[in-house]
Design a protein that fits this description.
Layout lengths: L1 H12 L1 H7 L19 H9 L3 H9 L5 H13 L3 H14 L4 H4 L7 H4 L2 H10 L3 E8 L6 E7 L4 E7 L9 E6 L7 E6 L7 E8 L5 E6 L5 E7 L11 H6 L5 E5 L11 H12 L2 H9 L2 E4 L2 H4 L14 H11 L18 E5 L2 E5 L24 H13 L4 E5 L23 H13 L5 E5 L5 E6 L7 E6 L16 E3 L4 E8 L6 E8 L4 E8 L6
Parallel strand pairs: 8-9, 9-10, 12-13, 13-14, 14-16
Antiparallel strand pairs: 1-2, 2-5, 3-4, 3-6, 6-7, 8-18, 11-12, 15-16, 15-17, 18-19, 19-20
Length: 535
Amino acid sequence: MKKILFVFLSLVLGYHSYAQLLPDEFHNRNDKNWYNRKTGSSLWFSKITEGKPQEAVDFAKTQMPDMEAEFLLAIAYAHLEKTDSAVYFARQSLDHGIPLSRYLAGDMYAMQPLLKLNDFQNIIKIANPGIIHGPMIGDVSTNKAKVWVRTHLKKNVVLEVSKDESFFTIEISINATTDPSKENTAIFNLENLEGNTRYYYRAKTEKTSYKSGSFRTLGQDKFSIAFGACSAHIPWREYMWSTMYSHRPDAFFTLGDNVFIDYPKNGQVQQYCYHQRQSNAHWQKFVANTPVYAIWDDHDFGDNDDFGELKKYEPAWKYDNWKRFQNQWANASYGGGNEDPGVWFKKSMGDVDFFFLDARYYREPSFINEEKDHALTMLGPVQKQWLTDELLKSTAKFKVVISSVPWAFPAKEGLEGKIDTWLGYPEERDELFGFLTENEISGVFLLSGDRHRADLWKIERANDYPLYELEVGRLTNTHRHPAMPGVLFSYKKKDAFGKLNFDFTAEDPSVQYEIWSIDNELIFEHNINLSELNK
């Protein structure tokens, strides 16, 4: 009966939809082993890239039944030139819910033996894939927006934009060709839009169906931001993106550990991890309709608690990973470009300036009980100068400084070895906080991620207003961290996201911080008035 149901649903809805209807059917839920990047699927994919496909086969077999194991078996058997087995497991994985885009994204060496097989070529021909990842909205302003797409191989993409959902009148029609040197991605730059206006868009390649979404340009007196960090690919928790989408936020800030990779020198594993997320139906719908802004943290920059140090292009892997990071997003900018690589940038929305920081690329290592001959930097001199200059120039009522790691010193327990939070960089944190006081900069509060829970902190400062820190770091992870002494509120029971509701209609503008669980339960709310953020 189950097989009959599958055939019916796959015909009516397609493989991908079926995977969402029965999310647990073909996942072994072994998140501490098979879905752990160090011991599970990422590790065994890395074995394939290292020329050890038999090792991947041997371990993947132990994890059955599981669609990710079938995916890896298909690739590994193709490398072993066991054609029948490769095609069998490819079909099994597709039948059980692996999207075809997982095989087609990018141009990875690991996929080539399978993609060259005639039987697999027939699968591709029947599917006729067009846009395989995206479209994703990024960098929306009052009159501009970006749309990101990825195709299988280099292709021309047509994008149409309208003010009406029926597309009776086309406002914009433009073409772009995806770039193989950028993992077959392209970014459309939409200009001359009207403020506070809902736009609908659709994109397609030749002889394929449209993929569509919508966005609203900026200009509202009230708007909301969803935010959080730490979203390991745990298939049965990916519905988090649909939970967030149900709130229709005006933007989403993903604050690092956006995917858990931890293989800084293996670009193919990095692509593998990005493609897991980008192929997910919940994620695809969310980002097609919600502008996304991204920075990174240790697990998508390098390895656990990693640092890049001050040299711009050394070690070489950090520059390579920076280039690869840009292929996955549609931010306004990335640090200072090639002259000063990084992922920091500023985004203005209404009367709020958001300052997104890069806490990894130039970070010096900080260790417990280590004697230092100078004050350590997390940001590096160029980024720090940029931040202070931009804060001085800002006339926004609210100024939100965003770090991927916690600002509050007590936020991390059980410190061993590296000091990963701002606790390891107290002089630089004091310098930044002192700069706010010296220059009478009002309206500042802080965002952060990293810790696998949702917190509200209040950092007291002598002779100045306190700095609230809103910390959310468990979007899809199963692992969680305990609450720490001194926190005003902490939640760890379920995965959760943060939501900021800005309201400029009152005489005293405000932002309401909310914590929502993955199951759409309102856990906590706290209101901050602008008048509280002034000496």
